Amino acid sequence: MRESQPQPEVFDVLVIGAGPTGMACAIEAQRAGFRSVLVDKGCLCNSLFHYPAHMTFFTTSELLEIGDIPFPSPNAKPTRNEALEYYRKVAMHYQLDIRPYERVEAVTGEDLNFTIRTRDAFDREHRYSSRKVVVATGYYDLPNRMNIPGEDLPKVMHYYNDPHPYYGLDVVVIGGKNSAAIAALELWRHGARVTVVYRGSAMQPHIKYWILPDIENRIKNGQIVAFFSTTVTRIDPDSITIETPQGPRVLANDYVFAMTGYIPDFDFLDSLGVHIEGEFRCPACDPRSLESNVPGIYLAGVIIAGDRTNEIFIENGRFHGRQIAEDLKQKLHDAAPALTGV
Q: Which end of the chain has fewer CB atoms at under 10 Å, N or C?
């Protein structure tokens, strides 16, 4: 006899993505009296966890606050570790229901009656029922690919964490923005031979103000080699090929950090039925309620901006939860009583 599937857990609001924006959405839904749950394919604040261990934020701690919980920091700019500790404490304070390490495989059904199917790290399936769904998945998990030969070699990384393993090696950093500059400087300071390759004519001027002169001086002094107006055309086990304004060159190389930026998961949005519109591939979204073109599915955080990933950060995405909660209060209370007020 075939075993029957267990009944799905039932919620008013299911938030996909347990980063700061997703947490803010769950907190505001909870404050409005709705039972909410957060589901994430990684850990709490998974993107922040994968930032470089010694990263310092560009902004001040009060601009990272959610749920009206103060973020005290002895530093003018808080560190990644301080932020992780802060968000853990916020999660504990609000007793947020977080289901980490569950990847959302499908969202089916319709407004007021969605079924969300996930799969955990042990390949077990889980099912949830929710009246509303909020997508707050960010963009840090999908790097912009260069689509060149050798990009899938194990020596190529789209994320930078620690410089120590690259001491004494030839390392190329592709990119000219904050992440590329920070990686290049830390690698050089820890004994790597660093080359920067960037398609722009110079390092981006909006790099953090304390980082930009540092990287420019290292390049000017020849401590870090830089090729501007240049692209990488091929990656091989012991070298890379670049196309410079003077023609192609082959450089000795051990590792490549392709700091080429990241994009939202457009395929996932498409699977939900969310329309992608315009030159910048922005998902269809009501600017007031943040409800997408699919009734009952809301969008929050940087995913709203499509390809323009430099427009929304924690600092402004953290307020999206309030917008969504205001809409939920009208639509859910009008539709039916909340399942389990909290």
A: N
Helices then strands, counting H and E runs in the chain, come out as 8, 17
**Superfamily designation of domain 9-142+262-335:** FAD/NAD(P)-binding domain (3.50.50.60)
- Domain residue ranges in the chain: 9-142+262-335, 156-258
Pairing of strands 255-258, 113-120: unpaired
Q: What is the pTM of this model?
A: 0.87
Tell me the pLDDT tens digit for each residue of 297-314: 999 998 998 877 666 667
Tokens of 120: 């955990």
- The candidate with the shortest Cα–Cα distance to 300, out of 10, 20, 11, 12, is 20
Note the pLDDT tens digit of each residue in 124-160.
999 999 999 999 998 877 888 999 999 999 999 999 9
Report d(CA 105, CA 140) in Å as an integer.
Answer: 19
pLDDT above 50 for 1: no
Record the tokens describing residue 184, joined without a space: 């290049």
